[in-house]
Amino acid sequence: MAFEKIQMKTPLVEMDGDEMTRVIWKMIKDLLLEPYIDLNLEYYDLGLPHRDETNDQVTVDSANAAKKYGVAVKCATITPNAARVKEYNLKEMWKSPNGTIRAILDGTVFRAPIVVKGITPYIPSWKKPITIARHAYGDVYKNAEAIVPAGAKAELLVTLADGTQQKYPVHQFDNGPGVLQGQYNVDQSIESFARSCFNFALDTKQDLWFSTKDTISKQYDHRFKDIFQEIYNQEYAEKFAAAGIEYFYTLIDDAVARVVRSEGGFIWACKNYDGDVMSDMVATAFGSLGMMTSVLVAPDGAYEYEAAHGTVTRHYYKHQKGEPTSTNSVATLFAWTGALRKRGQLDGNAPLQDFADKLEQATIRTIESGVMTGDLASMSTLPEIRKVGTQEFLLAIKENLDASL
User: Fold this and answer.
1) Which of 171, 233, 277, 303 is deepest in the core (most CB within 10 A)?
2) Distance CA 110, CA 275 (A)
């Protein structure tokens, strides 16, 4: 059947990535996007080799482009460790591109599981999706750290605007060498985080939970708690009451216990590192990291969509050897559909929004019909399952998509 390609008005920022997700990225574009959409993309190659070539300037440029155009879609990328530096012969151990982008956009990451029939959560009480709201600025992702020799004295030094200095003792390394880490955050970003969470809760009519460890971190974490409470009291308490939803604060360890016992259906706001860990826990417990959406929402209204998982290195090495793979592409595909839908909403482009909806529906129908990749097949309770390879899965989605157009 002939299909008139959908036109795009404003460019969508495309951030390419690494390893198996980069392979899947191209498959999605070739099979499920370019035949139907006259794609208007501003392309940035965030693959590790190109980040190294540009001294990571390409990451900064891509984030600024996201701010300029309002919507971006990002492939999973490698954050190099010592082994990766050697493997890719890098100039240096570049920082997390996600951390760099999040710092520039100063946004909040909202991650939620994609729920399908036949995939039962590992935690029996979970009946509804749990959305993780992850603060996306500072903390360990923009830290300074060092290996400290024996005999050294570590102090936290703060130089005030008038030049005076304040020192805070950290540790005297008398009994041998060790490690040291310094991290920071700023009130403005914490305030943006809080407002993003409160607004998202109102938009989705869900309770909002927030958790830190303020009993141990009496200045750092307590600052987060206080800012959230002040903004809630001043700006959102009446709105939440009118909407019939609740804002709830508790310690992170208590929150974990409550989450496990809950039935879901709420937003759980976490600091940067906590959100990184808990989003993976929630995704896996609901089924798979390949079944979780992720969107970074900036205070100025910019959106960056990505998969919540990594680059699937093990499958990539198999792919390089010519061996068959059965890699779940759903989260990467939903990054594209989320970005296309938002681009359509901002541009008033109804056909683009409708296409994004139909592509997601085709993906869900494919899985619920029993056609799925290995990770889903291993946990599905459907009576009839057909495990398929990476490309075969996308072709099955295409068949369902064509039937709906």
Assistant:
1) 303
2) 9
How far is C-alpha 214 from the geometric centre of its chain's CA atoms?
Answer: 25
Mean pLDDT of 74-90: 96
Give residue 102's pLDDT: 86
The dihedral region occupied by 110, where left means phi > 0, alpha psi between -120 and 50, and beta the remainder, is: beta
pTM of this prediction exceeds 0.85: no
Q: How confident is the model at residue 122 (pLDDT cuts 50, 70, 90)?
A: confident
The pLDDT, as a whole number, for residue 2 is 58
Measured between alpha carbons, how far is 283 from 281 in angstroms, rounded to an integer?
A: 5
